[in-house]
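Protein modeling request. Please complete all fields; requests missing the sequence field cannot be processed.
Requester role: graduate student
Desired output: 3D structure, token encoding
Chains: 1
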Amino acid sequence: MTTVDHANQPELHPEFHPEHILTPVLLGVDGQGSVQGVDQETEGGRALPRAFLKWAGGKSQLLPKILPRLPKRIGTYFEPFVGSGAVFWALAREGRFDHAVLSDRNAELITSYRAIRDDVEDVIALLAGWSHSESFYYALRARDPEAMSPVEAAARMIHLNHTGFNGLYRVNKSGLFNVPFGRYKRPRTLNKPVLRAASRALRTVDLLVADFEDVLPAARPGDAVYFDPPYVPMSGTASFTAYEKSGFGEPAQRRLVLALEDLQRRGVHALLSNSDVPLTRELYQGLRCEKVQARRAINSRADKRGPVSELLVSV
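Delivered output (315 residues):
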């Protein structure tokens, strides 16, 4: 593994301004379960696009490290593990790409993105009529999103995301969402400007339910790929990778390394983030790896939530 001293970082590209990045906070939310600080991000009186979902492991805090390591100008931007899409939204705010392909194996997540893109006003109307209570949360959680319309499924995901414990998205082996109710006094389950800005940014974006390997053949020189896979656990009990029922274990991590090497051979710029553990250091041996510090977002012990080393791998 080729490591790079964190102190010797490349200069930010001329169009990148760190003050445009939100102050990083735990999971990007305040004590009320609302996303902090970005309602003021406007241009010409309209909200700028940003994540409408909270996400454990979201990359807002690492944007000052990630964005300079992506090309100044991107043909098609691929994000095969989109999650809350922090990197996509940041690139969209800067107008850095001509086209984007966002994908994930989490079908419920992609359904939500599509509904925001195609039917945002219907999603807003549905969210506006829903209450915040523990009983409503569990009744909504018990509904099968596959039996709902895309608009209903999207509204369900947004509401549960902003009222569930710590903004987690976790499913059991049967694929059922099982995050408990969060103790927020005034969660903001509906943010109309944010949803409408997201809809505008997604209008020309391809949204796919797909394994990462299935979308990469379309990548060409001049494009860029950012991988934010489920991280290799820091310990045997630290895994929060159950964002879809089949999980993402070591065989999938090794497939990801082969995909990186293939993109390198094809001249496609790619960047990947993952935990800094013995397995990842072995997997990425021979690739350019940089250690960066990130705040540990979730741990049952408060004394284990401090800075942790992560890897940025680029080809």
